[in-house]
Amino acid sequence: MSLAKRLYDLQQIDLEIQKTQEALTDISHQLGESKALLKARAGLLDEEKHLAEMEKQQRDVEWEVEDMRSNIAQLNDKLYGGKIKNPKELVSFEKELEIFKTNLRQKEDNLLDLMTEIEATQDKIKSDAERLKKLEWEWQQEQEVLVQRQAEVESRLLELSQKRQVLTSEVTPQAFELYEGVRSRKGQAVVRVEQGRCHGCHLTLSMNELQRARAGALAQCSSCGRILYLG
Ligand SMILES: [Zn+2]
User: Cα(194) to centroid of ligand 1, in Å?
Assistant: First the structure.
């Protein structure tokens, strides 16, 4: 096997290592809390807080209604208990009672609206909690698959780095150094020769370059410096 072929194989492994590392990074980004899940949890918490506030408000309004009812009852007793004889005073009491009753009706309407809103919020919390539960379950499944995939990719990476070690030991230190040098400058170090052209820069190679490459020597393209491989 020519040195160029060995370096070409090494390059294939390096490309695969790069892809595998990218896949691993991708997986690590997907592992952990999901934004959608955090948002759903925070949303539910806000709704529950809002519900608690409304329930407290409901209790307060219920107390107020209770007070108003007892005030009205007292006024009623006074008014119809026969104790007030003065007609002027009677009229004034009647007016006061009417105002109290109007206020009570308004308060009762408020209470009804509040109770309707509470009921709607309770329904929303119920459906959002179910949605969150489903999201959490899906996320859990996804995480399990990712963890498994991560282990697979890690073991593949180990396998590749072992292969790389073997291939590296099969080339001379000078060839390896040349490969690493060109790779760091050009990205792709070894290129195929196709129809007498360097596949890296697409320029036509000289007869001398082609002959050296054919002879199995480590030949570099004179214009881009990449290592030529006649595969
Ligand atoms: Zn070239």
Answer: 11
